[in-house]
Amino acid sequence: MAITNFRLTTDEYTENFSDIHPPFENLTAALVEANRCIFCYDAPCIKSCPTSINVPKFIKQIATENIKGSAHTIFDSNIMGGGCSKVCPVEKLCEGSCVYNLMEEEPIQIARLQRYSTEKAIREKWPLFTRKPSNGKKVAVVGAGPAGLSCAHVLSRQGVDVTIYEKEAKGGGLMTYGIAAYKVTPEFCEDEVNYVLSLGGIEINYNQELGKNITLPELQSQYDAVYIGIGVGLARQLEIPGEHLEGVEDAISFIYDIRSKPFNQVKVGENVAVIGMGMTAIDAATQAKRLGAKQVTMVYRRTEAEMPCTQVELDIAKLDGCNIIWLAAPKEVLGVDGKATALVCSKMILGEPDASGRRSPIETGETIVLEVDMIIKAAGQMPFESLVSGLSLENKYGKITTDAHGVTSLNGVFAGGDCVNGGREVVDAVQAGKDGAAGILEFLSV
Q: Which segments constitute the 4Fe-4S ferredoxin-type domain (predicted)?
């Protein structure tokens, strides 16, 4: 069958893309879980959170029914704490470090407790922060993703007037356009962005792209400082024959369509191959299945032991019925009349570890052929190298070079998030925004 849409009924789409991590139904359920916490001294869950949320404190506040105080504790460290409670890989962060794991018991459901407080705060529009009077300083932030929004919120709380320039029609960045719809809805992302803006002193100019509608020199001349949080977003190419046949697309574009269109307008193949095993690959594979693909096969050139995604994410793909082929690397895409019909993969073995310590895959000379009508490339994302190079910023293959406070090689220009680190978790971007704001406040002597 050809790549098409309208595969499922409205009810089926609704069921397939419903919340994969349901919230606590009521306060009683949240209280029961909160009271399991033993409120560790020098808690490991705090140390494992990139934004250092005081987890025992906010859980204790829930346990004492101080939900507003709990939300304040979370947002004070992570203004995107609502979204992070839905999308963070908590199994390798806060919940993964919970001491209950050492006792072979289920860890505290930190994410669900965090979600309980933050969702209530966002839904009821609690004004938890007061902005200092405007001090006359103006800062431009490029990118309304987690890093940019976090930076803007910290600056505005200190009385700095912030203008954000965002290339898309909505804010939220990766949260809005790049994460599986069953984890966080675009509607929630919009509510979260509006909650950040409710502090005041922050204005977003949408459909304004750096290097196209605005330039860095213009921003430098109009503002006291500039923060760049443009993320990454260029799909890594496979560099194999047939890669540009119809039916071959990158995961970024595929997920973007799911996030920005009704589900019944997103086209998906009958037999889909997904190349890669990171979080984006998992999101692409599971959503292809939930859009109605008959068969989805994930192809990864290493073994399960080397996969970049977490076991929890892999289990989601398995439960959705995705097939997995380990030790297989894409070699060629075959096609008929300009359309992809098969993916040829080289069988691999693992050799000696590479520079990162991971064992390098080596071709065996054998191949396998998968009959497909759609191939989704999720082999990683690359920085906007040509754009960054044109900004005269010191960089390494497109990743902007900064110090710990986001200071770049240009005076008064700061950067953070994926455009600096190459791509990490949402919570890392939030912390980068905080670090950048601290550097800007010092630079402005505020």
A: 28-61
